[in-house]
Model the fold of this input.
Amino acid sequence: MTTPLVHYLILAALLFGVGLAGALTRRNAVLVLLGVELMLNAANLNFIAFWRFGPHPENLTGVMVALFVIAIGAAEAAIGLALVIALYRHCRTAQLDRVASLKG
Amino acid sequence: MPNELAFLPCAVVTLAGAVAAMMLRNLVHCALCAAGAFAGLAALYLQLDAQFAGFAQLLVYVGAVAILIVFTIILTRGADLRPGAAATSPAPWVGLLAAGLVVACLIGCLVSSPSLNRLPAATADAPVKSIGEQLMNQYVMPLEAIGLLLTAALLGAVVIALREPPKSEPPTR
Done:
């Protein structure tokens, strides 16, 4: 296995950037959530890469944190998508720029 | 070893899936491409010898989250886009500029740091047995907290997505 650590980190940075760009530019609320999920996954890739390349891989710290991040990501997706459905019920749209008023 | 060959295809699949998921117009296509990106990430975890995390990623993201996203797209009728409707916010270049700056800073730091160029330890594996032992000993409090969080989140999701009482009639557009 000769891929150095920095390749994984660059891939994670690019993935984070793609997720950030999507979350900042798309109009649909589902895709904004998807961008946030991509950013979470990029962080997860960093955790696992640092675990694998670290001096003490037998401690399993990175894998544990990655598992907890996966669980939190699942909870976040459930809540976020429920919010999108509630938003659609209330405003009849899931486009975020049409949901600009605070009351009503 | 197959690991040397596996990084590039996995990375390409992951990045291409992510870019397509953020750029395509049809939301169902976006969800499918995102599932591809999640699967590529799971392959990368497997390649990094983290088997349990890889299969958990496959089950949770490719299985559950992708299905949830497709259901939400169907329920909010996001798939039937009007042909003239814009898919991005009114000023997308601001977001693109911010994301580009973040990526440039990150990659600049990564490339300029010589200690990140190292190769991995000879062998590393995360057997399920030791993961279970650590979860029950060292990480038992976080595990319980995660369990509570997931329960609360799923109950909260059901409550949030419940139908509103009919007296508050939703405004039409």
Q: What stands out?
A: Helices of chain B lie at 2-23, 27-47, 51-75, 92-112, 128-136, 140-160.
